[in-house]
Design brief:
It contains 2 helices and 2 strands, in the order E-H-H-E. By secondary structure, the protein is of the alpha+beta class. It has a two-stranded antiparallel ribbon. It has one domain: Alpha-Beta Plaits (2-Layer Sandwich). The radius of gyration is 10 Å and the shape is globular. The mean pLDDT is about 95. The structure holds iron/sulfur cluster. The site of iron/sulfur cluster has 12 residues, from helix 1.
């Protein structure tokens, strides 16, 4: 699994982080700066929940 972050959509709500604290990373201004090539299997649920929680639809999950 992979997560694509569309930085131009991110508004810094931090809902992704609340749902996926071990997957998502925010920068100092609260914008998503996650750069992860491969989500480990045990974190896939967090990644999905975080993407679903994003009100800006800034996160896309690419399943393997
Ligand atoms: S929930 Fe969406 S808009 Fe908010 S910080 Fe995360 S990616 Fe950005």
């Amino acid at each position: 699994m992979k997560v694509i972050v569309q930085a131009n959509r991110c508004q810094g709500h931090a809902r992704c982080l609340a749902e996926g604290p071990d997957v998502y990373v925010l920068d100092d201004l609260g914008y998503n700066s996650t750069n992860i090539d491969h989500v480990p299997p045990h974190l896939e649920d967090q990644a999905r929940r975080g993407a679903l929680a994003c009100p800006e639809l800034a996160l896309t999950i690419i399943e393997d």
